[in-house]
Amino acid sequence: MKKYFIFLFLFSTFLYANENYISLNYISQSDNFEIIDYVQLCVDSRTEESMKITISKSIIPLPHVINNRITAKKNNDRYEFDFIDNFGNHAFGYLVFISPNMIDFYIDCSKFSDEGKNLGRLYGNKYLLVKTPYIIDPEDLVTK
After folding, report:
1. Residue 18 CA to chain centroid, in angstroms?
2. Residues of the chain above pLDDT 90, percent
3. How confident is the model over 106-121, as pLDDT tens digits?
4. What is the pLDDT, as a whole number, of residue 136?
5. Residue 137 has what DSSP assignment?
6. What is the CA radius of gyration of the chain?
7. Secondary structure class of 144 (helix, strand, coil)
8. Which is higher by pLDDT, 4 or 126?
9. Partners of 111 in the beta sheet?
């Protein structure tokens, strides 16, 4: 019975492995300082009508990070989502698969909380995310 379970686990993992997409935008602030607008999206599971995704978004080296696992529901050719981030902001957005290796991704905020009102710079942008076989830790992007 144990061998059957292990085989089933390995087979299901082979059929659907997580998909990872990333966008890194370097923005010069001065000759000696630049920031990185970092977005990573992991597709944890997918059906015909919805998908479970994990969104990670930050501006490095600033300390604030959006990191939420949510459900995006299919509406025509795109998957739409809304959630409350870890700062109490009401966020929304969508993603569109342009190709199997590329996603058009938009994230914005409809209502800021008192605690999260200074995080507007994390919202209101559109990104082109590219598929990658790796999950990237944003801490690895910071030069020490």
Report:
1. 13
2. 55
3. 999 999 999 888 888 8
4. 76
5. P
6. 17
7. coil
8. 126
9. 90
Look at residue 9 in the predicted model and tell me its pLDDT.
37
Report the predicted TM-score, pTM, of the whole model to 2 decimal places: 0.81
DSSP letter (8 states) at residue 89: -
103, two tokens? 């996603």
Residue found under tokens 């991704």: 105
Exposure of 12 by Cβ count < 10 A (0-12 exposed, 13-18 middle, 19+ buried)? exposed
Q: Which single residue is written with the structure tokens 């999950």?
A: 135
Q: Quick check: 108 and 93 in contact, CB under 8 A? A: yes
Tell me the C-alpha distance between 20 and 101, whole Å.
10
Sign of the Cα torsion 86, 117, 58, 25 reads: positive
Cα 106 versus chain centre, distance: 10
